[in-house]
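Late entry, evening session. Most of the bench is empty. Finally got around to the prediction I had been postponing all week. Sequence below, unchanged from the version circulated by S.P.
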Amino acid sequence: MEIQVKIDPTCREPKVLVCAHAMTDEVQAILQALAQAPPQLLPGFREGTLELLEPQDLLRVYAAGGKVFAVTPAGEFQLRLRLYEAEARLDKTVFVRISHSEIINLRKAKAFDLRLSGTISVRLADGSVSYVSRRYVARIKQLLGV
């Protein structure tokens, strides 16, 4: 893929032109990436204080006991969102659901253990381990190209 940038002082707003011989998966991915809105901050609560969480800092988001939590290197925060609402705010190419109650940041996943029968063990950057439920194993394997 060739990338060119042309600086034109007369240009009023940025313009992107994609030239290709056909509509390929690569072109589709480029168009989807350009069309996506920038990731939104997530409001996280801890000890009565609101902190705005950057999506790239998240290790995982999970639901437990009727509440939703976000885990970052700075600690665990409660979200006042449902899990599907948090998922909608996150970049679909980076965050993936691994079970009914958990979403992980693929960029923070350090290792995937495929030896377990019917499931996958995921070790995250902070050393914690999560498990892909059987329902999501095929999707994760497809994402990983295995």
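Two things to note before I forget:
The first strand starts at residue 42 and ends at 46.
The chain is about 20% helix and 35% strand.
Will write this up properly tomorrow.
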